[in-house]
Amino acid sequence: MEDQRVMTTNSLKDVIYAAFTEHPRQAGETYWQHFRFTIGMASRLGIISILLIAHGILPFTLTHAASYRLQKCQRILADRAARTGFYEISDGFGI
After folding, report:
1. What residues contact residue 16 under an 8 Å CB cut-off, 6+ apart?
2. How much is the mean pLDDT over the chain?
3. Smallest Cα–Cα separation from 86: which of 77, 94, 74?
């Protein structure tokens, strides 16, 4: 009985490990490299959101700031996909 419990624990650890590492590995990265990249992209998109809000309030300001940065994000993602050969599609979140 104890052997089966150990095997189940190891199996659970393997499943959890795979859940955290499978996608980053497909993208050619470690978990921490992938984490760093996603935090960087989220930061860029957060700044873009602030620029868009500011432009919405004062439409005569920052007329191209957000679109320029969005294009840069697109280039980063396209270059990354070309480098890794990993082209991700939406997982059904409507994006």
Report:
1. none
2. 85
3. 77
pLDDT (tens digit per residue) in 43-55: 999 999 999 999 9
Closest CA to 28 of 79, 91, 64: 79
Q: Where in the chain are the domains?
A: 2-84
pLDDT at 90: 52
43-54 exposure pattern, b = at least 16 Cβ within 10 A, e = fewer: eeeeebeebbee
What does the alpha-carbon distance between residue 40 and residue 38 come to, in Å, rounded to a whole number? 5
CB atoms within 10 A of CB 34: 18
pLDDT (tens digit, 9 = 90+) per residue, 65-81? Answer: 999 999 999 999 999 88
Q: Which two tokens stand for residue 12?
A: 């659970």
Dihedral, CA of residue 63, residue 65, residue 71 and residue 75, to nearest 10? 160
Q: What is the pLDDT averaged over residues 22-33?
A: 91
Q: Which structure tokens are listed for 76?
A: 């980063």
